């Protein structure tokens, strides 16, 4: 799919991370309060949080839709919608007042916040019986992109009085589109597919395939408010950092990282704070990815989840959402919501254990470790804030304020 100049401009660096805990092997966060959306397995597939961080829509089997208060999920309700299709993805419009929910059988539903109502957007008329697997709005909310099985991608938007305006995206692949994510400040989005790799949709709705062909990409997110970069994951523990070249989309870069010694498979990714994401893993565990540092860190070990509650640890994580930089809630397929928060410093020696030990194809270990530890002011500040003394942390904060004023 990549030929000529596109291939020559593509930079794909494959990094293998061997995980050596240098601070603690314990989890960085601990599980807390439990909320259950139902008494039976609900078969949920995911959830999306509103731009203001106040409400969450969870969705899944049998067209089940739940409206949840993000900070207090004890306040939740099932929204009435009588159908049988599984709802596979959802995304809020940047304005936060509506959301699209997509799923099997070409279904596209529209959630309206003002009256907490769900209605059909007429998806079957445009998409037939295509299984719709991903949806995401672009930065200014002018268009949403919907992806489905067999490589289908459309740009869509609602019309006054109901219905949709729909246009297929040209140059699509042939494998399932499993994830779409859009930058927060520029009308550019990435798509992740089962086989065809990773593509970038530019502001003119043109699709550019930029790399990662052959990897089973399953989800994507663009967690940074200011950096033109996104993150995609595959179910076989690969993380792709997609650096988008806004001026020349076809020159965008993909860096692929595989995490070793991770038990289980990646199941999804969600933004946690600016530039940081949570990868949820089956069996029940989580990994933090820091886009700015281009590094991954332990978040929740499965052993700690089992110690907390063996039954919950056996459930499939399908979504997380943040309530602060290090706190939030995790949702499972059966409908169990569990709070998470940082483990006290006196139990871990620091907020996060650090997984490093980096081997980069084509580079020497010593060079890379030197680069990471000695030559990165950002990483140096990060380490100081995580494991330094109180005085060292104060000095790091003062230094950051001085840099911000320049």
Essential attributes:
30 strands, Methylamine Dehydrogenase, Chain H, single chain, 8 helices, globular, alpha+beta, 406 residues, four-stranded antiparallel beta sheet, six-stranded mixed beta sheet
* pLDDT < 50 runs, ≥5 residues: 1-25, 347-375
* First and last CA, distance: 44 Å
Q: In total, how many beta strands?
A: 30
Q: Would you tell me the overall average pLDDT?
A: 85
CATH architecture of the largest domain: 7 Propeller
Keywords: Membrane, Transmembrane, Transmembrane helix
Organism: marine metagenome
Protein name: WD40 repeat domain-containing protein
InterPro entries: Quino_amine_DH_bsu, WD40/YVTN_repeat-like_dom_sf
Chart the SSEs and their pairings.
Elements: H1 4-9, E1 12-17, E2 29-36, E3 44-49, E4 55-60, E5 65-69, E6 76-78, E7 87-92, E8 98-103, E9 108-112, E10 117-120, H2 123-127, E11 132-137, E12 144-148, E13 153-158, E14 164-168, E15 177-182, E16 189-193, E17 198-201, E18 207-211, E19 217-221, E20 229-234, E21 238-243, E22 253-259, E23 265-273, E24 276-282, E25 285-290, E26 295-300, H3 302-308, H4 310-313, E27 317-322, E28 328-332, E29 336-342, H5 345-348, E30 358-360, H6 365-374, H7 377-387, H8 390-405
How would you explain this protein's 3D organization?
InterPro entries: Quino_amine_DH_bsu (IPR011044), WD40/YVTN_repeat-like_dom_sf (IPR015943). This is WD40 repeat domain-containing protein. Keywords: Membrane, Transmembrane, Transmembrane helix. By secondary structure, this protein is of the alpha+beta class. It has two domains: 323 residues, YVTN repeat-like/Quinoprotein amine dehydrogenase (Methylamine Dehydrogenase, Chain H, 7 Propeller), CATH 2.130.10; 51 residues, no CATH class. It has eight helices and 30 strands.
């Amino acid at each position: 799919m990549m030929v000529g100049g596109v291939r020559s401009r593509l930079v794909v660096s494959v990094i293998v991370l061997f995980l050596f805990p240098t601070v603690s092997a314990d989890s960085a966060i601990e599980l807390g309060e439990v909320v259950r959306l139902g008494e039976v397995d609900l078969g949920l597939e995911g959830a999306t949080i509103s731009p203001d961080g106040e409400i969450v829509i969870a969705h899944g089997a049998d067209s089940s839709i739940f409206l949840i208060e993000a900070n207090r999920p004890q306040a939740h309700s099932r929204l009435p919608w009588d159908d049988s299709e599984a709802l596979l993805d959802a995304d809020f419009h940047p304005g936060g007042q509506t959301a699209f929910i997509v799923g099997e059988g070409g279904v596209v539903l529209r959630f309206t916040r003002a009256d907490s109502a769900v209605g059909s957007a007429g998806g079957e008329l445009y998409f037939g019986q295509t299984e719709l697997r991903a949806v995401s709005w672009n930065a200014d909310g002018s268009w949403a992109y919907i992806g489905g099985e067999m490589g289908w991608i459309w740009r869509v938007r609602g019309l006054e009085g109901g219905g949709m305006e729909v246009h297929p995206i040209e140059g699509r692949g042939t494998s399932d589109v499993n994830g779409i994510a859009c930058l927060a400040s520029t009308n550019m989005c990435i798509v992740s597919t089962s086989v065809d790799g990773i593509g970038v949709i530019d502001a003119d709705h043109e699709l550019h395939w930029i790399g990662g062909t052959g990897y089973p990409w399953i989800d994507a997110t663009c967690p940074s408010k200011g950096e033109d970069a996104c993150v995609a994951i595959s179910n076989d523990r690969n993380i792709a950092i997609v650096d988008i070249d806004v001026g020349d989309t076809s020159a965008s870069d993909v860096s692929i990282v595989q995490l070793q010694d991770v038990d289980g498979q990646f199941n999804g990714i969600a933004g946690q704070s600016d530039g940081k994401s949570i990868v949820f893993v089956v069996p029940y565990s989580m990994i933090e990815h820091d886009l700015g540092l281009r590094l991954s860190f332990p978040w929740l070990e499965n052993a700690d989840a089992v110690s907390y509650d063996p039954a919950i640890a056996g459930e499939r994580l399908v979504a997380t959402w943040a309530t602060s930089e290090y706190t939030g809630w995790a949702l499972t397929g059966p409908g169990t919501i569990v709070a998470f928060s940082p483990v006290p410093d006196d139990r871990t020696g620091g907020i996060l254990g650090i997984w490093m030990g980096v081997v980069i194809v084509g580079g020497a270990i010593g060079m890379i470790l030197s680069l990471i530890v000695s030559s990165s002011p950002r990483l140096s500040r990060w380490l100081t804030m995580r494991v330094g003394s109180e005085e060292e942390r104060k000095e790091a904060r003062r230094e950051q304020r001085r840099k911000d004023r320049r």
